[in-house]
Design a protein that fits this description.
Elements (H helix, E strand, L loop, with lengths): L13 H17 L3 E2 L2 H10 L4 E7 L5 E8 L2 E7 L10 E4 L8
Parallel strand pairs: 1-4, 2-5
Antiparallel strand pairs: 2-3, 3-4
């Protein structure tokens, strides 16, 4: 699967799945997620040489997009009404759903 706007395959192989699991485990271990605006999120992704972004599209009432990435030991979350675009070196993992505690 892929988000057409991003042009990146969502299933990049075992390494991508392992990295997504590592992010999930980091969230469980740390218990903290930093919520940021989509603009700040894109800025954080730009700072990474080879960023991993977990993305999910939701169509419950209206279409929205949720994103997770890690940077310097922190996990960052953003939600957007429009799909975000990332640099070509970003590895995008498409999740069915991203749930974070409120």
């Amino acid at each position: 699967m892929m988000f057409p706007e991003q042009g990146k395959c969502a299933y990049g192989g075992g390494g991508a799945a392992a990295a997504a699991i590592a992010i999930a485990e980091a969230i469980k271990a740390s218990g903290s997620i930093v919520r940021v605006t989509s603009e700040v999120f894109q800025s954080i992704v730009q700072r990474n040489d080879k960023p991993l972004v977990v993305a999910a599209k939701s169509t419950f009432f209206k279409t929205s997009y949720s994103y997770l990435t890690s940077y310097r030991g922190f996990v960052f979350f953003a939600k957007s009404d429009e799909p975000l675009l990332f640099k070509s070196s970003a590895e995008i993992v498409e999740a069915k759903k991203i749930w974070i505690p409120s």
